[in-house]
Amino acid sequence: MTWTVAPEPYDSPVAAALWRAYYTEVSDRWYLLHEGRRTDPAELEREIAAHSGADLAPPGGRLLVARYDGEPAGSAGVRLLDRATAELTRVFLHEPMRGRGGAPLLVRAAEDAARALGVARIVLDTRGDLVEARGLYARLGYTETGPHNNDRYAEHWFSKRLA
What we know:
The protein has four helices and seven strands, in the order βααβββαβαββ. By secondary structure, it is α+β, with helices and mostly antiparallel strands. It has one domain (3-161): Aminopeptidase (3-Layer(aba) Sandwich). Strand 3 (71-82) and strand 4 (85-93) form a beta hairpin. The radius of gyration is 15 Å and the shape is globular. The mean pLDDT is 93. This is GNAT family N-acetyltransferase. Residues 17-163 form the N-acetyltransferase domain. Pfam families: Acetyltransf_1 (PF00583). Its EC number is 2.3.-.-.
């Protein structure tokens, strides 16, 4: 069984399916924690429509898809914030694929994509309940920093210098 990571158009069917799975999981986790319910289907559709991923298209961004034995398993996006900084976003692996080494591979590929965009630093935000993500970023050398955005769901911000 092998992993591959490659660029993917943000508007491809594969990207759309991964984005839907990502948003459903993180949204459901938030609502279950804070309101004891899953995401309202109408809200899910509104949010997916409002966040197309166009900011992950070249030349200012990249969407990467991880495949496990050729099957789409996860994604990560990188978008330029300024000339020196890129943001890592939409890092996701389908639950059955977790623990098989795909997440570090995907994040490292995103870092390589950020370097190719010419930046020296990559930042990201995440929530407190996404403890797996926070652990992954710490293991990969990200340092918790102060806020770089005002996203209403962001509770932790990380940064990493890219060599």
